[in-house]
Amino acid sequence: MSVHKPVKKITTHVLLAMKQRQEKISMLTAYDYSMARILDAAGIDILLVGDSASNVMAGHETTLPITLDHMIYHAQSVVRAIDRAFVVVDLPFGSYQGNSKEALASTIRIMKESGAHAVKMEGGVEIKESITRILSAGVPVMGHLGLTPQSIYKFGTYTVRAKEEEEAAQLLSDAKLLEELGCFAIILEKIPAKLGKQVAELVSIPVIGIGAGADVDGQVLVTHDMMGITKDFQPRFLRRYLELFDEMKEATKRYINDVKMGEFPNDKEQY
Ligand code: KIV
């Protein structure tokens, strides 16, 4: 049974209409062709080529080392795989914070070289000029507030953000600003559920949460966490739908054993 209205391709207009008719938006990360093909075939609404590729694909501790070239490579692989999903690409650390000209140049490279549909940027009022410049070039922008991993060394930890009144007020004001500037959606990461609900009610654009509670317009998870490919990451907001690390490890052990015992290939598996 399908849980969403059959639409050919997801666009920013479709996403806005989903919010208006209170249909929840589903979003997952993807960094490569094969995974994106599966997620798109399953009917995911948005695929995020996240800079979490820095952790998940490259094994870095933070999202800071990934480059614009790396992001474009991942985005190209994902775009080749999709028929229906809307593809958003993270502007990586260092590709937009300098000035708005640099932000636009990075965005143009992503859009031209990958064929993706939108970019995502971490921050509020401090990146206002860059957002405005990118939007004026006709590129949809998704905002990202709350825990913004590119600023991890400023925060010092990955704990829940905006628990205090002052930070919560700043987040609400940033969310309103992102809407006024013309962003098509906002990601809220790791904030109290009550604040997530407040933001979703405050703005008319879709608000997608990761650890922001149930009362937002959609949810996003890192696919490798949700499938259980990563093992050590256990935040409260994460629901694992598979334990692929263990299943793939077992399959690999069986393969190794078959090879060692001379049981692979058998008569039917050769020419
Ligand atoms: O890079 C990423 O995967 C993200 C999600 C956590 C929203 O930004």
TrEMBL record:
Pathway(s) this gene product operates in, as recorded in its UniProt entry: Cofactor biosynthesis; (R)-pantothenate biosynthesis; (R)-pantoate from 3-methyl-2-oxobutanoate: step 1/2
A GO BP annotation: methylation
Amino-acid positions noted as binding 3-methyl-2-oxobutanoate in the UniProt annotation, renumbered to this chain: 51-52, 90, 120
Enzyme Commission numbers on file: 2.1.2.11
Lineage top rank: taxon: Bacteria
Classification via Pfam families: Pantoate_transf
Cofactor binding summary note: Binds 1 Mg(2+) ion per subunit.
InterPro entries registered for this protein in UniProt: Pantoate_hydroxy_MeTrfase, Pyrv/PenolPyrv_kinase-like_dom, Pyrv_kinase-like_dom_sf
Co-factor requirement: Mg(2+)
GO MF entries: 3-methyl-2-oxobutanoate hydroxymethyltransferase activity; magnesium ion binding; methyltransferase activity
Binding site for Mg(2+): 51, 90, 122
Keyword Metal-binding: yes
Any one GO cellular component localisation term in the record: cytoplasm
Enzyme kind, highest EC tier: transferase
Bilayer-spanning residue ranges: none
Keywords: Cytoplasm, Magnesium, Metal-binding, Methyltransferase, Pantothenate biosynthesis, Transferase
Functional summary from the UniProt entry: Catalyzes the reversible reaction in which hydroxymethyl group from 5,10-methylenetetrahydrofolate is transferred onto alpha-ketoisovalerate to form ketopantoate.
Family label: Belongs to the PanB family.
Protein name (Swiss-Prot/TrEMBL): 3-methyl-2-oxobutanoate hydroxymethyltransferase
Organism expressing this protein natively: uncultured Aureispira sp
Originating gene: panB
